[in-house]
Design brief:
With about 270 residues, this protein is of the alpha/beta class. The chain has helices spanning about 15-25, 55-70, 80-90, 120-125, 140-145, 150-165, 210-220, 225-240, 260-265, and strands at about 5-10, 30-45, 45-50, 75, 100, 135, 170, 180-185, 190-200. The protein is about 40% helix and about 20% strand. The strands form two sheets. A six-stranded mixed beta sheet has the order 3-2-1-4-5-6. A three-stranded antiparallel beta sheet has the order 7-8-9, with helices on both faces.
Amino acid sequence: MRTALTIAGSDSSGGAGIQADLKTFQAHGVFGMSAVTAVTVQNTRGVFGIQEMTPEIVGGQIDCLFEDIAIHAVKIGMVASVPLIEAIAAALANRGATPVVLDPVMISKSGFPLLQETAQNALVDHLFPLAAVVTPNIHEAERLIGRPIQSLAAMRDAARAILDRGARQVVVKGGHLGDAAATDILYDGQDFRELTATRVHTRNTHGTGCTFSSAIAANLAMGTPFFEAVANAKDYISGAITHSLDIGKGHGPTHHFFDLYRRAGLEA
């Protein structure tokens, strides 16, 4: 069986973070493992607190898994501080051809900062060179390049700038542009592709970024090439949002197992 490792924070509400990542891996038939970077106090209405793991514990989780199990892809999510970033980079160094998907999680949907200001440069310096794919949304891309993004042309420029900072392939997610359709820009250093999906009008979008990047990692773990892997992940997240779950009083989660439920004749 193919495997994937998520290095990310825990979401106590189960809709984002390592919980979303593991569900996504399993939905793709990929066995999921986790290295927990932080525990959050979180529900569908927001993030109310964070307790980081120590760098030694995070690095130890990664090292012990690689020493025992063949890992076919890695997804990195929330890493809030410079010491954690450095520990992850050290643990992932010299791991061969294992593709790494980096989702530069900087702020929660409710506005809670998830990446310390001082850690942004460390993220770029230490983790971008290890990443096969970086998946910022519009707001994250704006912070990375230091200027506003208000069009598809600006998204392409941002993709170029992000590759110039060390990434090998990038997906700039366009969901926050507010257009009738959500268009993502894919760039591998040579070619651009656009992926467009009809916008689903729902408040239940908790964990969409985590789920999308994990779906890319799952596809890469199965040996799928970059453009096809992202297209498959786009189809998956669109379905998960379409069948999202009305759980909680805030932004409910996407439905990671919508296809399994459909095939089993079950209602969510």
